[in-house]
Amino acid sequence: MASQKLAVPCITVINGPLKPGKSVIIRGVVNTNPSRIEINFRHKSGIAFHYNPRFDQNKVVCNTWDGNWGQEEYPAGMPFRAGQPFEVYIYCSDRGFNVSVNGHQVHSYNHRFMQLHDIDVLDVRGDLQVTSVEA
Questions:
Q1: Three-class SS of the chain
Q2: For the chain, which residues make up each domain, given as ranges?
Q3: Nearest-angstrom CA–CA distance, 98 and 9
Q4: Whole-number pLDDT of residue 3
Q5: Is the pLDDT of residue 64 over 70?
Q6: Average pLDDT, integer, range 56-63
Q7: What class, spelled out in words, does domain 10-134 have in CATH?
Q8: Burial 94-124 (b: 16+ CB within 10 A, else e)
Q9: Distances (CA, A) of 122 to 1, 58, 82, 108
Q10: Across residues 75-96, what is the average pLDDT?
Q11: pTM score, two decimals?
């Protein structure tokens, strides 16, 4: 089956309430000359989890927006490569979000926004092509 491109930004409603045990899988290809990618778990008044690979800075930034940005977290390394396909698996645990890229655990981000059932939108944008989202 040939992969299809989804529109970017790719905004998807998360099926059912987000809760511990739920996962999201995003597949795609990084553009050949990328600057940034954003994966955002949104709720009505903010972003519960912002996962932001920054190719222009060669780092990944994780954060939460609740009217203001919180303290940034920086997972070690850059798990994405320009022009290369990827699979991001994000698992919601009772403690936080566990992020794996291409089968390798790359970061755990503790929940700062605790009303998980209010998180209802996955927003993927930036310098990438999205081929599938399972939310």
A1: CCCCCECCCEEEECCCCCCCCCEEEEEEEECCCCCEEEEEEEECCEEEEEEEEECCCCEEEEEEECCCECCCECCCCCCCCCCCEEEEEEEECCCEEEEEECCEEEEEEECCCCCHHHCCEEEEEECEEEEEEEC
A2: 10-134
A3: 23
A4: 54
A5: yes
A6: 97
A7: mainly beta
A8: eebbbbbbeeeebbebebebeebeebbbbeb
A9: 25, 24, 23, 18
A10: 97
A11: 0.94
Check residue 2 and give its pLDDT. Answer: 46
φ, ψ dihedrals at 117, nearest 5°? -65, -15
At 16, is the pLDDT very low, low, confident or very high (cuts 50, 70, 90)?
A: confident
Backbone angles phi, psi at 118, to 5 degrees: -85, -10
